[in-house]
Automatic annotation (TrEMBL):
It catalyses: ATP + protein L-histidine = ADP + protein N-phospho-L-histidine. Residues 142-191 form the PAS domain. Keywords: ATP-binding, Kinase, Membrane, Nucleotide-binding, Phosphoprotein, Transferase, Transmembrane, Transmembrane helix, Two-component regulatory system. The lineage of its organism: Archaea, Methanobacteriati, Methanobacteriota, Stenosarchaea group, Halobacteria. It comes from Halopenitus salinus. This is histidine kinase.
Length: 475
C-alpha cells in the first residue's frame, strides 16, 4: 500500500468530522435561540431541520467513503470540499466586509453573491460530468468493438489480468478453444503455465496517446534465457506498427463521417440554392437589376462555400497511388486555370517527383490564387480589391528546394506576418471581405495526405514563400 492509499481512510474521517462540526454549530444555534433568546423550540428545530439533514448527509458520505476507498479516492473528494468551501467563505467575507464598511448589511446581496458562486460551480461540475458521460459512451462503443473482435477473430486470443506480477487468464475466444482444447470455463483463473504456455512477453499498445491494449507473444516451450534487447525492441516496433494501423483505421472512419456530412450539407443547401437562382433569372427583366446582382453574388458565394467544404472533406484522405509529375508542366497548367490578372509565373528550375496528379493540382491552384489575391504593394493592404488597385500583378516563383526533397511557391507580395503563419492554414481564416478562408486549409490537407509537410518562410523578395518538403524525387 503506497502513501496515497494509506491516507484515504484519514481523508474520509475528515469529511465525516466536517459534518459533525456543522451539526454542532446548528445545535448551538438551537440552544441559543431556545434557552437564551426564549424562542419556541419547535420553530427553532424547524429552522435548523434542513441544515441538520445536510450535516447528516455529509457524515454518512464520509463513512461511506471510508468503505469504498478502493474505488473512490477520499483525498480527491476532500480537496474539492476544501476548494469549494474556501471559495464560498472568501466570497461571503469579501461582500460582508464591504457592507460593514458601508454601515449596513444586505442579506439579499450576500445571497445573490453566493448564488452566483453556486451557479458557476454547477456549470463547472455539469460540463465535467457531461464530458465524463461522453467518455463513458465512447469507451462503451470501443469495448463493444473489441469484444466483437475478440469473439470473431480467427487467431487464438486470451484476456489476461496480473495477480502478484503473474499473468492469469480471465477469458479466451473460440479460436483459442479450438487451438488448445480449453474452453472458457476451464481456462479462467489459470496461470499461463497451467495452460502449457511457458513463455510470455508483452508490450503495451498505445493508440492516439491512450492505452489501447497489450500485444502478447506466447509459446508452449519454455526458454532458459531472458528476452534479449533485440527481441524486446522487435515487440515494441510491432506494437507501434499495429498502433499506426489502428490510428489509420480511426482516421479513415472520421474522414468517412466527414464526407457523409459534407454530402448531406451539399444536398440540403444546393436544392434551395438552385430554386433561388432560378427565381432570380426569372425576375431579371422586370425587377431592380442592382438588387438582383447583389442577390446573385450572395448565392454564388454560398455555392463557393459548398464546393470548398466538399473539397476539404474529400482532400483529407491519404494518397494511395502516385506517379511521376514534372514541376514546370504542373505549375504552368495550374497557372492557366487561375484568374491571374496581370500576374506572371517564373519556374526557377525543374523537378520531377511522385504525387497524385489530380490532387496535387489543388496545392498549386490554391497557392497561386492566394498569392494573387493578397499580392498588394503595401503590407497593410491584405484584400483582393486593394491588390487590384495597388499594382498590375504579382510575380510568382516556383522551383525545387535546395536539398531536392520538395518544392516552393513564392511571390513578391507583402508576405505573411510570423504571428499568422500557424493560423492561415485553419479553415475560415481570411483577411478579406470576399474570401471564405478555406484555400490554404485545402492545401494543407492535400500536402498531409501525401505524407509531406508545409511551412511558410520569408522569400528573398520580401513576399511569402511556401515550402513543401518530403516529396520523393522521380527518376
Amino acid at each position: 500500500m503506497d502513501r496515497t492509499d494509506a491516507v484515504q481512510p484519514l481523508a474520509a474521517a475528515v469529511v465525516a468530522s466536517l459534518g459533525l462540526l456543522l451539526a454542532s454549530i446548528f445545535t448551538f444555534d438551537v440552544y441559543q435561540d431556545v434557552v437564551i433568546e426564549g424562542d419556541r423550540l419547535w420553530f427553532t428545530l424547524l429552522e435548523n431541520s434542513v441544515p441538520y439533514l445536510l450535516s447528516a448527509a455529509i457524515v454518512a458520505i464520509g463513512l461511506w467513503l471510508g468503505t469504498v476507498s478502493d474505488r473512490i479516492r477520499s483525498t480527491t473528494v476532500l480537496r474539492w470540499i476544501v476548494a469549494s468551501l474556501a471559495g464560498v467563505l472568501i466570497l461571503s467575507s469579501w461582500v460582508y466586509l464591504f457592507q460593514q464598511q458601508q454601515g449596513r448589511i444586505k442579506p439579499r446581496i450576500i445571497a445573490a453573491q453566493l448564488s452566483a458562486a453556486a451557479i458557476l460551480g454547477g456549470i463547472v461540475v455539469g460540463i465535467y460530468s457531461d464530458r465524463q458521460r461522453r467518455r463513458r459512451e465512447e469507451l462503451a462503443v470501443e469495448k463493444s468493438r473489441l469484444e466483437a473482435l475478440f469473439e470473431n477473430t480467427s487467431e487464438p486470443v486470451t484476456q489476461v489480468a496480473f495477480e502478484g506480477g503473474d499473468p492469469v487468464v480471465v477469458d479466451v475466444n473460440p479460436a483459442f478453444e479450438s487451438t488448445f482444447g480449453y474452453d472458457a470455463r476451464e481456462a479462467r483463473e489459470r496461470s499461463f503455465e497451467e495452460h502449457g504456455l511457458h513463455c510470455y512477453h508483452g508490450t503495451t499498445l498505445v493508440v492516439d496517446g491512450e492505452l489501447y491494449g497489450t500485444v502478447c507473444f506466447v509459446s508452449t516451450d519454455p526458454r532458459p534465457d531472458p528476452f534479449t534487447p533485440a527481441e524486446t525492441t522487435f515487440a515494441e516496433l510491432l506494437a507501434r506498427m499495429l498502433a499506426r494501423e489502428i490510428e489509420r483505421d480511426h482516421a479513415a472512419a472520421r474522414i468517412e463521417r466527414l464526407e457523409e456530412f459534407a454530402d448531406v450539407l451539399s444536398h440540403d443547401l444546393r436544392n434551395p440554392l438552385n430554386v433561388a437562382q432560378g427565381r432570380i433569372d426569372m425576375e431579371r427583366e422586370r425587377a431592380d437589376e442592382e438588387n438582383l446582382r447583389i442577390a446573385a453574388r450572395s448565392l454564388d458565394r454560398i455555392e463557393a462555400i459548398i464546393s470548398s467544404v466538399l473539397a476539404v472533406a474529400r482532400e483529407g484522405r491519404d494518397v494511395e497511388e502516385t506517379e511521376p509529375v514534372r514541376l514546370s508542366a504542373l505549375a504552368e497548367r495550374c497557372f492557366e486555370t487561375v484568374e491571374t490578372s496581370e500576374s506572371t509565373l517564373h519556374v526557377d528550375d525543374d523537378f520531377r517527383f511522385h504525387a497524385d496528379p489530380d490532387r496535387i493540382r489543388g496545392v498549386f491552384e490554391n497557392l497561386f490564387r492566394n498569392s494573387i489575391e493578397h499580392g498588394s504593394a503595401s503590407p497593410c493592404s491584405r484584400t483582393r480589391e486593394d491588390a487590384d488597385e495597388q499594382r498590375d500583378g504579382v510575380i510568382i516563383h516556383v522551383g525545387p528546394l535546395h536539398d531536392g526533397d520538395g518544392f516552393y511557391v513564392a511571390d513578391d507580395g507583402p508576405g505573411i506576418p510570423e504571428s499568422e503563419r500557424e493560423t492561415v492554414f485553419e479553415a475560415g481564416h481570411t483577411t478579406g471581405s470576399e474570401g471564405i478562408g478555406i484555400g490554404l486549409a485545402i492545401v494543407e490537407s492535400i500536402v498531409e495526405a501525401h505524407g509531406w509537410s508545409i511551412e511558410i518562410v520569408d522569400d528573398a523578395d520580401g513576399g511569402a514563400r511556401f515550402e513543401v518538403s518530403g516529396a520523393i524525387p522521380a527518376e
